[in-house]
Structure formats: structure tokens, C-alpha cells
């Protein structure tokens, strides 16, 4: 330690003969140089370093504030999106329920209208069958009547002679005369 203090004290004894030399004693020169450099750095660099750190601190705080604002905005948008999703899901469920109800209603309407059409077709079929039966019955009656009439005419023609014919005409004329007297 005595060497270090001696080097400060002996600064005045250095020869100024114009020669510049290098002191190779590491223990004597290095701590002095380091202390001087550190002192100068601390004295002059303190303000610059403080400004740099303050600027960095401010940028970090601004970034944190911006991040918080973005996070709050994202949370708000997320909540809005969730609310819209819930609303859309409710509407979809409502459409699904209404759709199923509407489909069931249309299915029932279709079944009912099909039953009505089948019922009408059954009625038309029954009416057609009845009409055809009546027509067949009328045709059979007409044939039976024609055959009976032809049979009666044939019997009359074969058994009717002139004398019987004249008596029948006379009896009918008599009946008409009686009827005329009754009505008058």
C-alpha cells in the first residue's frame, strides 16, 4: 500500500526530460487507472445511464399499458363474441325446435290430406260400383221386361183370334163409356 501512496506523492519528482515511459509495475498502476476510469465513468456516465434506464423503464411501462389496454379490448371483444354466440345458439335452437314442429305439422297435414283423398277415392269407387250395379239391374229389368212383353205378345198373337179380338175391343169401349159417365 505504501507503493500506491508513494506513486501519488512522487508525481512531482518525475523527470520532465521529454521521455514518456511505461510503468510495468501492475500493482502500482492498475488500481489507480481503474479507480480513475471508474470515477470518471460514474461521475459523467451517471446521468447518461440514468437517462437510458429511465427511457427504457418508460418504454417498458408504455408497452405494459398498451398490452393491458389491448388485453382489456380483447376481453371486451371476446365477451361480445360470446354473447353473440349464445344469441346465435339460442336462435339456432329456436329454429331447430320450430323447424321440427313445422315439419311435424306438415307431416300431419300431409297424412290428413292423404286420408281425405283416399276417403274421397273410396267414396267415388263406391258410387261408381253402385251406379254400375243400378245400370246392370236396369239392363236386366229391361231385358226381362222385353222378353216378358215378347212372350205376352207371342201368347196373345197365337191365342187371339178375330172374335176374341172384337169382344176385347167392345169391352174396353164399354169401360171407357162408364168411366166417362162417372167423371161427368
From TrEMBL:
Keywords: ATP synthesis, CF(0), Chloroplast, Coiled coil, Hydrogen ion transport, Ion transport, Membrane, Plastid, Thylakoid, Transmembrane, Transmembrane helix, Transport. The chain crosses the membrane at residues 32-49. In plastids the F-type ATPase is also known as CF(1)CF(0). Residues 64-98 form a coiled coil. It comes from the Eukaryota. F-type ATPases have 2 components, F(1) - the catalytic core - and F(0) - the membrane proton channel. F(1) has five subunits: alpha(3), beta(3), gamma(1), delta(1), epsilon(1). F(0) has four main subunits: a(1), b(1), b'(1) and c(10-14). The alpha and beta chains form an alternating ring which encloses part of the gamma chain. F(1) is attached to F(0) by a central stalk formed by the gamma and epsilon chains, while a peripheral stalk is formed by the delta, b and b' chains. Belongs to the ATPase B chain family. It is found in: Membrane; Plastid, Chloroplast thylakoid membrane. Component of the F(0) channel, it forms part of the peripheral stalk, linking F(1) to F(0). F(1)F(0) ATP synthase produces ATP from ADP in the presence of a proton or sodium gradient. F-type ATPases consist of two structural domains, F(1) containing the extramembraneous catalytic core and F(0) containing the membrane proton channel, linked together by a central stalk and a peripheral stalk. During catalysis, ATP synthesis in the catalytic domain of F(1) is coupled via a rotary mechanism of the central stalk subunits to proton translocation. It comes from Abutilon theophrasti (Velvet-leaf). This is ATP synthase subunit b, chloroplastic. One of its GO terms (cellular component) is proton-transporting ATP synthase complex. GO terms for molecular function: proton-transporting ATP synthase activity, rotational mechanism. PANTHER family: ATP SYNTHASE SUBUNIT B, CHLOROPLASTIC. Its main location: membrane. It is a single-pass membrane protein.
